[in-house]
Fold this sequence. Notes:
Elements: E1 12-24, E2 29-33, E3 38-52, E4 55-60, E5 63-67, E6 73-77, E7 88-98, E8 108-111, H1 114-127, E9 139-142, H2 155-176, E10 181-183, H3 191-205, H4 213-220, H5 224-235, H6 239-257, H7 262-268, H8 274-285, H9 289-296
Antiparallel strand pairs: 1-7, 1-9, 2-6, 3-4, 3-5, 3-6, 3-7, 5-8, 8-10
Amino acid sequence: MLKAVTIEPILKVTDLYTLYYFQHKSGYRFEGESHDFWEIIYVDHGRASGLNGSEPYELKKGQMIFHHPNVFHNFRTGVMTDEVDEDCDIIVISFGGNLEVLEQFRDHIFTLSIYERNIFKQILDEGKQVYNKTNGKNLIYKKENPFEQEKVPGAKQMIGNLLEQLLLSLYRKQKECPSQVQALPLQSLGMEYQMVRQIILFLEQNLYNNISFADVVNHFNFSETQLKKMFRQVTGYSVMQYYRKCVVGRIEYHIQQQDQNFTELADLFHFSSIHYFSKFYKRETGRTLREYLKNSQE
C-alpha cells in the first residue's frame, strides 16, 4: 500500500492586495509609503531608484527588489547618481501570507532569469482575467472587493500559484546563484545620500523615544535649513513626517502581534497618556487604534 508523502510548503501566498503595471515618464517621483504587507518592484524597462528603509537602491531592466512589511520605501525614475532621467516601466505586486522565509531577501536585489521574467508575464496575463471591467490605465488588480466574482474562474488562485513559483525560484537562486543576487548599497553614493541614510538609521533607532526635530539637528550638528532640504530631496518627506510614519508602522506591528494593550503601547512609545497616544495615531492615519485592531483581525 502506497504511503502519501506530506508536502510541507516553504512559503505560501494567501492574500493579493494589488497588481499594477506602471509606465512612468522621466521625472516621476513617488514620495513613499509603508504598509503591513509585502511588495515587489520589478523594472520591465528603463531604470529606477529609491530608498528601501534606510538603504538606497537602484534597479535596471530585469531586476527586482522586495519591500518588507512596515518598511518605508519610495521610488523615482532614473538613478540617484545620474543627472539624466529616463522613462521607466515597472510591475508592482503586493501580497501577504506565510512568508517568513523571505526575511533573508531583505536589502537584496535580484537579476531575473528568462524563466522568472516569463512568470511575471503570466501573472500579468492572469491579472487581466480577474475583473470583467477596466480599472484605470495602470491598475490590473486591487483588493477592494475580495468577494467580487472573477471574470475567469481561478484567476486569483493562478496569480497566487505563479507568485509562489517566482518566490521559490528566487529562494533557490539566493542559495545556488549568489552572483545574481546583490546586497545593498550597490555603489558609492554622494555625501547627501550617505547623510540621509545616517539620519534614517538614527530615526529608526529612536522609534520608541518620541524624539523631536531639535533632537535630530543636535545629534548631527547640521543647520535646520540644510538638514530639511537635504532630507526632503532624497525621501520626499520632512524629517518628522518620515519619523511619524515609521512610528505608526511600528505601532501597527505591535497591534498585529497583540503583545501589549493600548495603555502599555502608549508607555512603550513614551507618550504621556493613552489619550495623546490615541490622538497621535488618529491624526496620522485617519482611523482609531481599535479600528486598526479590528481590521487586522479580519
